[in-house]
């Protein structure tokens, strides 16, 4: 039996990503496909690179989207920068720091793992201890915005520390980019990667990256080839950058229509203004937080270490994680995220990313959670919670 | 200055891919994004796997799209199947065979390279010589449909040979899938990868793969971890296949909207019927060939080794490659492909892939080429060429 065309339900996406995608981005995806070497496509790629530089706050020449999801952006940074035998310090405070460790060992690096508690920022003192103990370290890596816990680490401080000990830095900004302050040049971040499907409000599948001159110099000085052909920046660059004659070498076929979507999403971010987008995420975070707390729910992360765009909430005792998420989805088409790793079954992750960070979404989330928790016998005051949220939104 | 929304020109894509994308596929891309763990999305993924099995003619459980372009599909097969020290025989008759060699060495394999002339099928005698000389070989790899030259190799025969010498096989079917016969189970292909943007008429960015039990057994028996985290099939499988409890582990965020497009494209192929699609490509190839030959142009590949979907044509003496392609694009929005590698400047590559394989495209290509060649002083009879093509189309 042949299936029929897939007609997805219309959901509100308040999980850890993908976030809601604006209709302008969706319709950009449907524009006619052109060749990946077409001069008009090449001109659009140049615009994407410029728009990404604005979003990353960088002048880095090597700023571009990898043609694959965020985890391939992570792998791009690690397989290019880590040479076999390099000592790499990875600060771990959630799932994605753990994934960085996997990347280091698979690239032949010597891993020094520095754990901070889940739900907390990376502890700079522990990083400094590790730097002192491992003067041979070449690279420090950490996650600015831990999507698994909602903790925000102080990238400026951590990068400063790493540089004092002569290390390059790799920063995961998958959930940060477009949602909370990120100053790639201002903080001296050497290599950074992000994802299209979080605060950029684009569809999943692309990983913007940016590397500075120091990072590029380390790649060019490699004695061993990059283990991945697909992610080898020496080759990718030949496609994404033109030589003097404006001729591009063929590397792989770029995901043309996905890039239409990214172009439109970045355009919308630039139209709004980056700092205004950060402020919007912050204001909506306060409103959601006030509403959730009025429902009696507690945020996992201490106030001064919270990401505005990803709110981890402790699941109240006696409430079944999966049932609540299922009811939210079935009744109200509302998706929130489950806990990952150590947090599985213990927290919900409520995202306010990009186009999902809207007043109407905050009210839907509070009212739907309130209604279901009451039904499950929790006795919560949804009226008060909505009033709290509304007050924060009106400020 | 903020750029404006990108409005691509409407091209006719008769290069080596991407091919024209059907409006049904384009509009599928623009459907609302849902979560990659949403039960409705998971159900659609199951349909994609079934539709891919139909297209590949296989029952392989491990049949799925890699979330990245065709070259990442290639890398997926090599980094999972090749262990450091494995001897791998690669048959090279064009650019993509050469890329396979890169993959082998980067994966730590010992490469045995067997060259056949560009523009010709892989020579089975040379493969057999190599198999005899290298009884330690574990894997044989080759390209069924060499997109750089338009040559079609005999996959059934080559796989049979490899198996006789106890080797697994990796087959590049990027340009083959959906356009010319491919019998994954019938020919015993152990691992195969393809691309979304060729004869499937989907947008670029996804790489369908299929591996049989023997290939999976080799991956499971590895003594070393797969060098890539992103492409490690042991991990990807946890996401793409459910365990008994229908629970999926999170690996990476799937490119949701791109997969809507692939679902629709595979649906259209199934509606047409795979064998009818092969026959359409073959008939249109004959019509294009007759027209081009009537224009005085010569196909590069001998008749019995030609791919119907990719026609490499020798550029007539005195005609400037780039000027003709530029005029076709600027005047008629018609894209044809340049030569790659050894064929750069010497051949044009004219694709008839998927939705590009239409009678109207054949007439456009012949009439536009005829008009431009006449303008350049070549004196060709476009009337006769169109009559030849029309005759072949009416049979």
From TrEMBL, chains A, B:
Claim: Chaperone is one of the keywords in the record: no
Keyword annotations: Aminotransferase, Pyridoxal phosphate, Transferase
InterPro entries: Aminotrans_V_dom, Aminotrans_V_PyrdxlP_BS, PyrdxlP-dep_Trfase, PyrdxlP-dep_Trfase_major, PyrdxlP-dep_Trfase_small, SP_NH2Trfase/AEP_transaminase
Keyword tRNA-binding attached: no
Residues that hold substrate according to the record: 349
Cofactor(s) annotated in UniProt: pyridoxal 5'-phosphate
Residues with PTM N6-(pyridoxal phosphate)lysine: 198
Start and end residues of each Aminotransferase class V domain: 33-339
Any one GO MF annotation of this record: L-serine-pyruvate transaminase activity
GO-annotated biological processes: glycine biosynthetic process, by transamination of glyoxylate
Domain of life: Bacteria
Family under the similarity heading: Belongs to the class-V pyridoxal-phosphate-dependent aminotransferase family.
Name of the molecule in the record: Alanine--glyoxylate aminotransferase
Organism for this UniProt entry: Halochromatium glycolicum
């Amino acid at each position: 039996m042949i299936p029929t065309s897939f007609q997805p339900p219309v959901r509100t996406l308040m999980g850890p990503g993908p976030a809601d995608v604006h209709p302008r981005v969706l319709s950009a995806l449907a524009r006619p496909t052109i060749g990946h070497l077409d001069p008009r496509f090449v001109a659009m790629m140049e615009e994407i690179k410029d728009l990404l530089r604005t979003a990353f706050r960088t002048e880095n020449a090597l700023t571009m989207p990898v043609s694959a999801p965020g985890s391939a952006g992570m792998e791009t940074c690690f397989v290019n920068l880590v040479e076999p035998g390099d000592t790499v310090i990875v600060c771990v405070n959630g799932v994605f720091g753990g994934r960085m460790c996997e990347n280091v060992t698979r690239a032949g690096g010597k891993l020094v793992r520095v754990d901070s508690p889940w739900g907390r920022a990376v502890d700079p003192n522990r990083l400094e201890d590790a730097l002192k103990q491992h003067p041979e370290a070449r690279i420090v890596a950490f996650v600015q915005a831990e999507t698994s816990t909602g903790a925000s680490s102080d990238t400026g401080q951590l990068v400063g520390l790493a540089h004092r000990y002569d290390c390059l830095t790799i920063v995961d900004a998958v959930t940060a980019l477009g949602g909370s302050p990120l100053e790639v040049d201002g903080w001296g971040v050497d290599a950074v990667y992000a994802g299209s499907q979080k605060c950029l409000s684009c569809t999943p599948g692309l990983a913007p990256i940016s590397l500075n001159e120091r990072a590029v110099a380390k790649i060019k000085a490699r004695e061993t080839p990059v283990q991945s052909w697909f992610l080898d920046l020496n080759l990718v660059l030949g496609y994404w950058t033109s030589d003097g004659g404006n001729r591009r070498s063929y590397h792989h076929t770029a995901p043309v229509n996905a890039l239409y979507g990214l172009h439109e999403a970045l355009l919308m971010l630039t139209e709004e203004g980056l700092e205004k987008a950060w402020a919007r995420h912050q204001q909506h975070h306060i409103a959601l937080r006030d509403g959730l707390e009025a429902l009696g729910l507690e945020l996992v992360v201490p106030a001064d270490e919270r990401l505005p765009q990803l709110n981890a909430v402790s699941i109240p005792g006696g409430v079944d994680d999966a049932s609540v998420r299922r009811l939210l989805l079935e009744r109200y088409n509302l998706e929130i995220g489950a806990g990952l790793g150590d947090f599985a079954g213990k927290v919900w992750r409520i995202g306010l990313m990009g186009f999902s960070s809207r007043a109407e979404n905050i009210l839907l989330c509070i009212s739907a959670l309130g209604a279901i928790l009451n039904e499950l016998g929790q006795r919560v005051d949804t009226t008060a919670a909505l009033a709290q949220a509304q007050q924060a939104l009106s400020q």
